[in-house]
Amino acid sequence: MTITIRYFASLREQVGRAEDHLETGHAATVGEAWQRLHGQAMPARVLAAVNQEYVAADHRLADGDEVAFFPPVTGG
Amino acid sequence: MAQEQQARSLVRLEDTRFEPWTALGAFERETGLDDGRTGAASVFVGTMRDFNVGDDVEQLFLEHYPGMTERELERIAAEALERWPVNACLIVHRVGLIRPGEPIVLTAAWSAHRGAAFDACRHLIEALKHRAPFWKREDLRDGRQRWVSENTPA
After folding, report:
1. Cβ of A8 and B63 within 8 Å?
2. How many other C-beta atoms can be found within 10 angstroms of the C-beta atom of residue A27?
3. Domain contains B150
């Protein structure tokens, strides 16, 4: 099983793609997923959501999760 | 005797220009807010400027996270209904390309008295600005594009 990782807005442009996929077991938490994909700790200003709910970096991942990373929000 | 009526809220994203005052009137009629229980309405409308941090802005692109954005807005509206004695809440937000002068966001709260209406309306817009996943990209008149890095404090 895999986990889908989505990027939004300026973060998608910095990463250079809209999506990544990661095998379950290669990362136990959201923060580890970032570390695995980008070779460094998750920056403090990056926000994370799992299955469309805000989570902290230590949130544990499960099969089929949709993880999203995005910059500070600027709506309104 | 007055019947107990359920408070209700509506959240909507618009990908083309919307007219806030028409949306307010339609929502008031659909929700039956003219039933004599509602003594106050508080409304915030945010409109696109043609300037930001010293530069001329040609247009704005508003990106969102389909699904999560609606869910977060619904949660914010539910919080307002829970925290204040309000009869109804409305949130409308644009997505896509926006030109100067066009409305970006509408938040509104209806209550028996003004205090709760003001407080709930302020919660809707402030929580939206802090938590709802929207991102603004500015297309400047000189051809540059840039993502807005953070919202103004107030």
Report:
1. yes
2. 20
3. no
Taking only the tens place, the pLDDT of each residue in A5-46 is 999 999 999 999 999 999 988 899 999 999 999 999 999 999
For residue A13, which residues of chain B lie inside 8 Å, CB to CB?
Answer: 147
Number of domains in chain B: 1
d(C-alpha B151, C-alpha A27), whole Å: 33
pTM score: 0.94
- The C-alpha atoms of residue B138 and residue B81 are separated, in whole angstroms, by 34
Do B107 and B118 contact (CB within 8 A), yes or no?
no
Tokens of B30: 């659909």
Contact across the interface for B125 and A8, Cβ inside 8 Å: no
> Closest Cα to residue A24, out of A69, A67, A68, A63?
A63
For the stretch A42-61, pLDDT in tens is: 999 999 999 999 999 999 99
ipTM: 0.95
Residue to test with chain A: of B76, B107, B135, B144, most A Cβ within 10 A: B135
CB contact under 8 A, B105 and A73: no
Name residues 26-65 of chain B within 8 A of A (Cβ). 46, 62-65
Range of the domain at B121: 8-137
Domains parsed from chain A with CATH numbers: 2-70 (3.10.20.30)
